[in-house]
Amino acid sequence: MTSTSSDLGHTLLQRLDEAARCSEPGPGVTRLFCSPQHREVLEVIADWMRIAGLTPELDAAGNLVGRSDRALAGEPTLIMGSHQDTVVEGGKYDGMLGVALPILALEQLRREGHELPYGVEVVAFGDEEGTRFQSTLIGSRALAGNFDHDCLAATDAQGVTVKEAIEAFGGDPSAIASLARSRDRVLGYVEVHIEQGPVLEKRNHALGVVTALTGIERHRVQVSGKAGHAGTTPMEGRRDALVGAAEMILEANRVLHATEDFVGVVGKLDVRPNAVNVIPSEVNFTLELRSPSAEVRARGRETILEALAAIAGRYELELHTEQTYSAEAVDCAPWLINALQQACERTGEAAEPLFSGAGHDGLAMCELTDIGMLFVRCRDGLSHHPDEAITAADGDAATRVLMQFLSDLEVPGFR
């Protein structure tokens, strides 16, 4: 099956530009969960869904779900989608590509008169990045039936809880449990995403088929010392929380560099009282650790936390650590890997097998159903950055591959 359109990629980029305008002011795209910008982009996505023949609905967890007629009738359904939220000053394509592209693929199939013999849902998940509340995968966990209701008590920087934010957005936290999909009606979950790495670009391939997703964990670290006048307190004996935290961050970085298949970052740092002439009394920072191996991640974590405790003792600081998130590595389903590879081959694209070093909504959806992922080459492997970019040609290739995959998909009862 081939598309009659030669400009799907240009249409895709135009739509992603449209969605990117739903952002807080400033560089890149900043669109947080349950924010005004979140509400604004859902109106844009809902219009795309209607054009593609889908019926959009905001669910209790803040997801926008577009369903085909067969899905609404309760027939076996393939779920596709990704997240609409971003990091602060992020890019246009991370997440949103996986929302806009399947909608465009379905629209083109409809235009060509091709009716799929199964139901389809496209989901713009409410929260994957965890930027606002540090509690990620809220939307996909709700659909997968593994939603952690304790996360409703998490707060943002203004003290607003997840529960309060969802209610103000028009969702219903008390009804989130009812969103869990029935396993016997879900065919699988497929997500299209930018690679967020340099492999495809280095090998000059537009697309890659993902074999597995990395394991991720996040920690909140609090380092407490004692404030004092910066000019009158002797250097000897100071309990400077920032000096201790700085050494902790450097030690974590050293361990990460020294350990194979182990990456991580201290991405957020808050200093109190944050005054030019006061010794810092408290530092809070985040520590994120990733590895495809649970053993590597566990050993690395223990090494880092032991080093942090030793540094705290040396500077007479108090240390408190709390794990705020954890997700184990998961494999993509062999049958979906094979189907995506065949779709690539039938459309003349290389089917590069890749491991994902980033986490995605598939980390939650794998507990409901089989998962598959298609990666799209991104310039310089750059992501979570305003300069994030893909080409129209690669977007066109990915759309055609997904159309081929959807057309060829064998469904139980139709094989």
TrEMBL record:
GO terms for molecular function: hydrolase activity, acting on carbon-nitrogen (but not peptide) bonds, in linear amidines; metal ion binding. This is Allantoate deiminase. Coiled coil: none annotated. Binds 2 Zn(2+) ions per subunit. It comes from the Bacteria. InterPro entries: Amidase_Cbmase (IPR010158), Bact_exopeptidase_dim_dom (IPR036264), Peptidase_M20 (IPR002933), Peptidase_M20_dimer (IPR011650). Residues 214-315 form the Peptidase M20 dimerisation domain. Zn(2+) 1 binds at H83, D94, H193. Pfam families: M20_dimer, Peptidase_M20. Keywords: Hydrolase, Manganese, Metal-binding, Zinc. Allantoate binds at R218, N277, R290. Belongs to the peptidase M20 family. Zn(2+) 2 binds at D94, E129, H384. NCBIfam families: hydantase, PRK09290.2-5. Homodimer. It comes from Halomonas cupida. Its cofactor is Mn(2+); Zn(2+).
